[in-house]
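Fresh eyes needed here. I'd like your take on this protein's tokenised backbone:
***
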Amino acid sequence: MNDSEDGPDRDHTRPPGVSDTTVEALGALSKALETTERARGHLYSFHQLTGSADLELDRAVDLLRRAGHGQWAAEVLREILGRNVIPGHWTYQIVEAYDRTYYEPFRDLERRVRGELAEGRDHLYEAELKEARRTDGHPDHTALPDSGPPSAG
């Protein structure tokens, strides 16, 4: 830990009796949840990209018709436009199922574990890592936001 007088706030300080292994376990659980957050973001990208592609098909159909390729325009309309991406599902339904089935239970469990084991305090592992790596007195190594002037460099 850093020996300076400025240190992490109470919300980022290990409660009494919480072991190193518990802090490490909470950090691993948090990292797994953060990875799930990223996966969820990619799922939203999939949702938006697929929706954009479907909307672009309107233009393709119009251009095929204008170019005299009505049969191809009709086939695009019939076979692809508005098609399910997996049986019975558009992408929004996949996002909703993911949220309901996996993401929300994971997020809720992580919150309950932190509440029980660390008084609900978040990012203890990272806060302790920050403390261990800070340089005392350096203006760009302060413990808290707005706890010192920004450096000129």
Notes: The chain has four helices and no strands. The longest helix spans residues 20-66. Helices lie at 20-66, 70-79, 91-118, 124-133. The mean pLDDT is 91.
